[in-house]
Write a structure and sequence with these properties.
Rossmann fold, N-(1-d-carboxylethyl)-l-norvaline Dehydrogenase, domain 2, 2 domains, binds NADP nicotinamide-adenine-dinucleotide phosphate, alpha/beta, eight-stranded mixed beta sheet, single chain
Length: 296
Amino acid sequence: MTASTHTTVTVLGLGAMGRALAAAFVAAGHPTTIWNRSPGKDAELVAQGAVSVATVEEAVRASALVVACLFDHESVHEVLDPVGGLLADRALVNLTSTEPAGARELAEWAAAQDIPYLDGGIMAVPAMIGQPGSALLYSGSSTVFEAHREALETLGTAEYFGADAGRASLIDFALLSGMYVMFAGYYHGAAMVRDIGMSAEEFGNRSASLLAAMLPSLPAAGAQIDTGDYSEVFQPLTFTKAALDAIVSASRDAGVDLDIIGPVRNLVDRQIAAGHGAQSSERAFESLNPRPRTAI
Ligand SMILES: NC(=O)c1ccc[n+]([C@@H]2O[C@H](COP(=O)([O-])OP(=O)(O)OC[C@H]3O[C@@H](n4cnc5c(N)ncnc54)[C@H](OP(=O)(O)O)[C@@H]3O)[C@@H](O)[C@H]2O)c1
């Protein structure tokens, strides 16, 4: 029998995501050790070939690559602080959702103990892990990323965004902000049509078609935002304002709260008030981040 050439991996945290990560490592042939605070979440993984251990210390000692997928920043410290001394000759990858400042703080905590640290953001739900469409964003130690890239690729496409450990998290949350606001826009529309008897499901079908048709225009909008020159006009701010005024009025008439659509109109109004009404509607971006832009 030949020994496995696959990296040994430990997964700390067997919530829905941690279990999916561990299952992907096992399926790819990595000798996988698992640990969870509460018992009872390891049976399926053990049946698949993972080794379940009772303590974090045993779990960390078992592998070259230690992946944490816990609840939040505090729980990462709670679990890892007592074993910091054991991590120095291993690679630590934190896939717990952590704010950029939290990721940077963990990177400093790790650096103080010579722990090679990579932070990651998972752009997938558990069912997608290891499947096409799963993407993970990383930043922090390039040494860890390069040394363990193959293992990390078993979870989904692995992309590295630089030495600042907070960058992956920032991009992760920026992407999620777009997702949450898109859903909120759908909720708003569904609330508008509720009283005429259109189900949220039917409205969801119609919204999905319209949004899918609109989404490919995002990079072109971004290209204009990147230049900061809004003189090439696809749709002027005044046109967008007329549409938003009508939507706000129709929402009011339908008894729908303006918490979602009101601030969107506000972005446009601020640019028009500053004298930019004839410019392209992408200029609404400038209401959000009016500081001088840094080079991209
Ligand atoms: N699920 C998703 O779709 C998804 C997508 C992207 C990113 N993520 C991120 O992945 C991470 C895990 O998500 P999940 O879906 O697996 O969450 P989950 O099902 O709620 O599991 C949370 C895990 O954290 C552990 N935990 C919580 N507090 C702890 C503490 N103080 N000490 C030790 N362990 C603790 C839990 O252990 P117990 O079993 O003992 O409670 C459990 O293993 C989160 O940061 C989440 O934001 C999840």
